[in-house]
Amino acid sequence: MTSFIAKILGPSVLYLCTDINLHACRCSLSTALQNDVALEPINTKFALPLHFRLRHTVDVVIFNPPYVPTVTDEVREAQETHDIRGSWAGGSDGMSVTNQFLDLVQELMAPRARFYLVAVEQNDIPTIRHKMLSIHGLQSEIVLRRRAGREHLFVIRFVYADSAKASHVDG
Fold this sequence. Notes:
The chain has 171 residues and is α/β, with parallel strands linked by helices. The protein is 40% helix and 27% strand. The strands form 2 sheets. Strands 3-4-6-5 form a 4-stranded mixed β-sheet. It has a two-stranded parallel sheet with strand order 1-2. The radius of gyration is 16 Å and the shape is globular. The two termini are 29 Å apart.
């Protein structure tokens, strides 16, 4: 996904992508090289090692979490062992990892940032949207709905509530 965005936006942007799975990081780098784009894959959970340095400076955040509802033990083991199950195992409602990130993302976001979250129907999208507005002041809209096999995928865009108003007034 990061290589796709980098191809569209061009080389004047710093692209960081993170994953707990080292193989996924290697695949991201390989894809970037094949597409002649520069990006920096980091083998870590979220942006934790860079969190303080990136505080309130990130303009676009894209999070494609492990959103598939699974048994709680599977998500815990996948996160601890950093294996491939970490790409899908989301816990009982698919929100175990996502909820952790939702509590951190506002600290990364610049004042006029955009945050895009990939979710599935089972993740209770109305609750996600309400939580992000009431707790973090992030207004949201569903910008994409797509069926992929059995999954009903959604991409939700979040912006600071006051930023959304400013964007609307500006044009």
